[in-house]
Amino acid sequence: MRLTILRHAPSLAGGLMAGRRDVPADCSDAAAIARQRARLTPGQVIASPALRCRQTAAALDLTPDRLEAALWEQDLGAWEGTDPALLPDLGPLPPQALARHRPPGGESFDDMAARVIPVLNTLDGDTVIVAHAGTVRAALSMVVGAAALSFSVAPLSITVLRRAGDAWAVEAVNLRAGD
């Protein structure tokens, strides 16, 4: 089974943390959209219900078979709509502590992964998911644990995992349209 996760196109959040805010996407780069569309393999299509994910799916000429609420981005609580430069520096935290850290009123990466991973584990055929950077990292955490937080996940990038039985393997991470 092949799982292809495409992060939505750049969000129009004005450089602020988007998280659960339902902001639109900039899907105007037709060449990048076409390059990524050509990389997608047939299969079922699932999307986060976020506007930016639905717009990206439409730009890719994908019609989701379903919208899956569990795939929403991490709830950043009080950090939603904040300039990233104003957030505390969590860089010194070891990966496991970073994964457990909750923004005030939000959820931790571990909390988010606990709702995303069960959805991924129920998939039974090749699937394309249009979702968020957090969704991609949650999928990667099935293979590398909390170290998944160290992966860069660019807008409109593709990450591919394969599953044989219960074992997941990473095939590709952060394939950008220009790669």
Explain what you see.
A hairpin with a 2-residue loop joins strand 5 and strand 6 (167-175). The chain has a single domain (2-84, 93-175), classed as Phosphoglycerate mutase-like (Rossmann fold), CATH 3.40.50.1240. Helix 4 (109-121) crosses helix 5. The model has no long low-confidence stretch (mean pLDDT 96). It is built from five helices and six strands. The protein is α/β, with parallel strands linked by helices and 179 residues long. Helix content is 28%, strand content 18%. It holds the Pfam family His_Phos_1. This is Histidine phosphatase family protein.
Structure keywords:
179 residues, alpha/beta, Rossmann fold, six-stranded mixed sheet, 5 helices, 6 strands, 28% helix, 18% strand, globular, His_Pase_superF_clade-1, Histidine phosphatase family protein, His_PPase_superfam
